[in-house]
Amino acid sequence: MLKKQGGISSLIAHSSRPVGSSIELTGMFLYILFI
């Protein structure tokens, strides 16, 4: 739960950055799915 919340908060924090945002979003999405 804590790891998922941390990942979501990091996604929101990095959503403002257009460069590499898609890579981080997909990476965290797979991370949440497998964990």
Task: Describe the structure in your own words.
The protein is mainly α and 35 residues long. Helices cover 77% and strands 0% of the residues. It is built from two helices and no strands. The chain has helices spanning 2-14, 21-34. The radius of gyration is 9 Å and the shape is flat. The relative contact order is 0.20. The mean pLDDT is 68.
Keywords:
35 residues, mainly alpha, flat
Question: What is this structure, in a nutshell?
Answer:
This protein has 35 residues and is mainly α. It has helices at 2-14, 21-34.
Chart the SSEs and their pairings.
Elements lengths: L1 H13 L6 H14 L1
Poorly predicted segments: none
The number of strands is: 0
- Name the helicity range: over 70%
Mean pLDDT over the full residue set: 68
What is the number of helical segments per DSSP (H or I, 4+ residues)? 2
How can the largest sheet be summarized?
none
Cα gyration radius (Å):
9 Å
